[in-house]
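Now for one specimen:
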Amino acid sequence: MKKIITVLFLVSFGITNAQQAFKGKGDAKINIGANIQDGGSGIQGSADFGLGENFSYGFVATYLLGVDNYSGIYGDTSYINEEPSFEDRFDAKFRINANLSSVIGVEQLDIYPGLSLGLHNFGGHLGGRYFFTDGFGVFTEFGFPIAKYSKNKEIFDHLNNQVTFSIGASFNLD
């Protein structure tokens, strides 16, 4: 019973003391978290900077730490326990967001759909941030490719050209 009361107190304290998730022009946020996808998992870091009341731009980088090796035939080549290179594991993107916290009327929650242009594709994302204090919150994000591009049709091209899920901590820098 004590545990239930403690959890309810912490949740209600977090909700009543929550802070504004997106403040508009001059706002700066950093997200650090886990990236989960088919064939691998890794880390994601992103930074977003407010340009107006409902608009921001930013950068996101992902590096896959745990990636499944490939054994099999791809095209005309046979592979045995092939490992992806750094270029296959890493992706960096420039992105723009439509920050909707003022539109939906919940200051502590920022829902942000957006578009991104990266090293491996042109894509979109849908994310959300919730701030418990002025400086700390949590985020979650879904990313997806819209147009894939690649110089070579390699066995690991799919790693950065699929739906991804990220979750982690968000920090306010302003």
